[in-house]
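Summary of Year 1 activities. Much of the first year was spent building the evaluation harness for sequence design. The harness presents a backbone, in tokenized form, and records the residue chosen at every position. We chose the following record to illustrate the format because it has been used consistently in internal testing since the harness was completed.
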């Protein structure tokens, strides 16, 4: 039984690792925006993000869900309030991204803001920021990077 559980955990970890690698290979423009962020998420992630943004009835086709979530993300007052409500441990990486011109190498970001975890299973700073819809992971200029959507920079 223990072997079966270990094999299942190993398969799950492999799936998560491959998904993360796919994100890092996704090509992004030099200065990605909110539209790039929305396009990078699955429809399920967009629905979850939409609920967090206070949107209701996010049913229908992907294009309709994308449009509503994008409109909410581009709402300056809503976005400013969300950014101000973030704890310091999440605001600081966003400020650093802004100071770095909007993006930084993936390895540098994770080394700086996601040191080895003390608690197994606790979410990383990067995964928390990504789920909140405030950073993108992808390849910029041939290098795996973490990027701040261009519309967020002036709000920080």
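For this record, the design step produced the sequence shown next.
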């Amino acid at each position: 039984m223990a072997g079966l559980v270990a094999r299942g955990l190993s398969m799950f970890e492999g799936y998560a690792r491959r998904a993360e690698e796919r994100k890092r290979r996704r090509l992004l423009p030099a200065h990605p925006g909110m539209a790039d962020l929305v396009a990078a998420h699955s429809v399920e992630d967009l629905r979850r993000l939409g609920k967090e943004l206070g949107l209701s009835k996010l049913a229908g086709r992907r294009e309709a869900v994308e449009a509503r979530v994008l409109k909410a993300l581009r709402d300056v007052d809503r976005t400013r309030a969300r950014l101000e409500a973030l704890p310091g441990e999440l605001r600081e990486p966003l400020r650093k991204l802004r100071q770095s011109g909007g993006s930084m190498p993936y390895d540098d970001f994770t080394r700086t803001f996601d040191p080895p975890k003390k608690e197994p299973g606790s979410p990383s700073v990067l995964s928390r920021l990504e789920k909140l819809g405030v950073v993108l992971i992808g390849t910029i200029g041939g290098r795996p990077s973490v990027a701040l959507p261009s519309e967020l920079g002036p709000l920080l």
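The chain has a mean pLDDT of 86. Quantitative recovery figures across the full test set are reported in Table 2.
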